[in-house]
Amino acid sequence: MQERLDLAVEERERAEEQASTFSRRRARELEELKQKARDAERALGRAVEDKDDLASSQKELRRQKEDLERRAAQANEEVSEVRQAMGQLRDALDDSEKQARDLEKEKADLRRAFDETQNRLEKLQKSSKTMSDELRAIQTAKTRALDSNVQSSRSSTESSRSRLTSPTPKSRAVAAQPSGTADSSGIDYVYLKNVLLQFMEQRDKKHQQALIPVLGMLLHFDKKDEQKWTAAVSTR
């Protein structure tokens, strides 16, 4: 009986010991689980923080991306404007160069026309001087012819008077008729025709104005007539 009691006590002690061991193991496992739960909570908190940080980072990246896209679009627009301005400047430069070439050509043409006009003016001045000399010679010849006519007329008159007073009236001499190089008005119409033809053929007003004094000497212009002819040439 005592042996059974001892066995029962041993079994109870062994059972209590096993229960204590199991309880300690369970407590240790529970503590480990609690620690794991705390670690999981901390990890979850860190994950939430990381998620928030990631969301903030994504938001910042999205903002930076939008800002970069906006700046890129603005830069592209500025590049387009710069290219357009460069094109306009290039066109303006081409136009300026073309205008410069045209001006150089026009300058050369004007210089050539000026030289030609200068040469024609010099020739016309020489021709005008020659015409003036010829006109003076004609006027001198006309004056001499008029003087000769007057002298002949006086001689004829004196001869007639002497014949009227002569005792032999039947002997009558034939009076000579006066002659001259120009017509009764003293104008050389061939020379005048040539001067008028040159005047009408001239396209340059300066050349025409240079011929007016010659015409004035031929047609006996006064100062007022020359002014009228000069004004008429200037207003053409």
Mean pLDDT: 77
Number of strands: 0
Number of helices, counting only DSSP H or I runs of 4 residues or more: 4
Structural class: mainly alpha
Radius of gyration: 67 Å
**Span between N and C termini?**
168 Å
Strand content: under 5%
Largest sheet: none
Q: What overall form do the CA principal axes indicate?
A: rod-shaped
Strand and helix order:
HHHH
Q: Into which percent range does the helicity of residues fall?
A: over 70%
Poorly predicted runs of 5 or more residues: 163-184
Overall description:
Residues 140-151 have a biased composition (Polar residues). Residues 182-232 form the GRIP domain. Residues 163-184 have low confidence and may be disordered. The protein has helices at 2-164, 189-201, 205-219, 223-234. Helix 1 (2-164) packs parallel to helix 3 (205-219) and helix 2 (189-201) runs antiparallel to helix 3. The radius of gyration is 67 Å and the shape is rod-shaped. By secondary structure, it is mostly helical. The chain has a domain at 98-167 and 181-234.
